[in-house]
Design brief:
Elements lengths: L1 H23 L7 H6 L2 E3 L7 E6 L1 H12 L5 H17 L2 E2 L3 E6 L3 E12 L3 E15 L4 E12 L8 H14 L5 H12 L3 H4 L3 E6 L1 H6 L3 E9 L5 E10 L3
Antiparallel strand pairs: 1-7, 2-4, 3-5, 4-5, 5-6, 6-7, 7-10, 8-9, 9-10
Helix pairs in contact: 4-5, 5-6
């Protein structure tokens, strides 16, 4: 009897421990900043196949609203606006932004591409952004998955720190990073390192993705890529929705 009693006691402890562990890992409510970055809209039936390249921003916006009841992605729009501001600061001649919408049965992707004219080099790719969504059959909803932007910095004659600081700050704000000033400070620390220290390196100046995945929240990432000479080559920013 004593053996049975001890065994029963151990089982009770194990069960209560597991229950406690489950309650501790329960997802917390999303912050207002996180909510503003993600999308979840009702969609009756699977997505119809679609491949629409070379759209203007207005055409892309109207297509998303008419076909999927989706507004143009907020992060994508703000991030590409930061690219426009950089082009203006550099005195470059930018081209109209180009959009592509691709849809399959359970996946929807929006691409935005921005070029500019560089003397003696023709059109140069400046920025490309992407927003990906999934269709969930059970809930019959379209959910956001990932949003990202890649900005090419190699062709800027100045590559001045101040202008790039403004770019990084605007990207952090577009991602709703509450510590955007700290992100800029970290950028300034990294960009001042020697060419040898930066050569062919990819450096993260902000990344809360792992923590966000654990908490079923929204993860943010900003990476800097440097070329062989230690010059800033690319700025990459990404928002990932782990809430679904």
């Amino acid at each position: 009897m004593k053996r049975k009693g001890v065994l029963l006691f151990i089982l009770v402890l194990l069960f209560s421990g597991c229950s406690k562990g489950k309650s501790e890992t329960k997802a917390k409510p999303l912050s207002n900043e996180d909510v503003s970055l993600i999308t979840s809209v009702k969609q009756k039936g699977a997505l119809s196949q679609m491949n629409l390249p070379n759209l203007t921003e207005e055409e892309a916006k109207n297509t998303l609203e008419d076909k999927y009841n989706l507004e143009m992605n907020v992060f994508l729009t703000k991030a590409m606006t930061s690219v426009d501001d950089l082009v203006e600061a550099e005195g470059l001649q930018s081209k109209d932004r180009n959009y592509t919408i691709l849809a399959e049965e359970n996946k929807l992707t929006i691409y935005a591409v921005q070029h500019y004219d560089l003397e003696d080099h023709g059109q140069i790719l400046l920025g490309q952004a992407e927003a990906t969504y999934k269709y969930d059959k059970t809930s019959q909803k379209i959910h956001s998955l990932k949003q990202s932007i890649l900005i090419n910095c190699t062709s800027f004659e100045s590559n001045e720190e101040k202008k790039l600081e403004v770019l990084v700050k605007k990207l952090a704000e577009a991602m709703m990073v509450t510590e955007s000033d700290q992100v800029v400070k970290q950028f300034s620390v990294e960009i001042k390192k020697s060419a040898d220290a930066l050569s062919k390196k990819v450096i993260s100046i902000y990344d809360d993705s792992k923590e966000a995945e654990k908490k079923a929240g929204v993860g943010r990432l900003i990476n800097l890529s440097f070329d062989r000479e230690g010059r800033l080559e690319e700025v990459y920013a990404q928002v990932t929705d782990y809430s679904n």
